[in-house]
Design brief:
Layout (H helix, E strand, L loop, with lengths): L30 H12 L2 E6 L2 E6 H14 L3 H38 L6 H14 L6
Antiparallel strand pairs: 1-2
Helix pairs in contact: 2-3, 3-4
């Protein structure tokens, strides 16, 4: 059965698109994609005016500045959020430093136990770790 007549038109009662319009595929959103989009948006450059001069900074830095400004003006929600972030960042820093200190102590114990087996690279790695913990370290 021919679908079109001699003029190229579809015959009466014959659909030109028998399978119909394809369904719209839903976008698959994963946690990784959301995280990537979030951090990409946070790096978007925005223009701010500070001290009468225009500056271009990442959006996350502008948000942090705005939080501090609101907190210093007495906004209680901003003060609470600022303190929450400060506590979290301080806690993360302390945990990181404790982990480095534990690694350093274990390395120094190894040097004391097996001085003949310790390489110069190992000693250098411990020195670099000490310096990363304490910028005033003179070893």
């Amino acid at each position: 059965m021919p679908l079109r007549n001699h003029l190229g038109q579809f015959e009466k009662g014959v659909c030109g698109n028998p399978k119909g319009r394809p369904r719209k595929e839903s976008r698959r959103i994963s946690n990784d994609k959301l995280r990537e989009d979030f951090f990409d948006a946070a790096e978007t450059l925005v223009v701010i005016v500070e001290g009468g001069k225009r500056k271009v900074i990442p959006a996350h830095a502008a948000i942090e500045l705005q939080l501090v400004r609101k907190a210093t003006s007495g906004d209680m929600k901003a003060i609470i959020e600022y303190n929450r972030r400060r506590d979290r960042f301080t806690s993360e820093h302390v945990k990181e430093q404790l982990s480095r200190l534990e690694t350093l102590v274990n390395g120094l114990d190894r040097i004391r136990q097996f001085p003949e087996d310790v390489t110069d690279e190992f000693k250098n790695a411990l020195r670099l770790l000490s310096e990363s913990m304490d910028p005033y370290f003179r070893g």
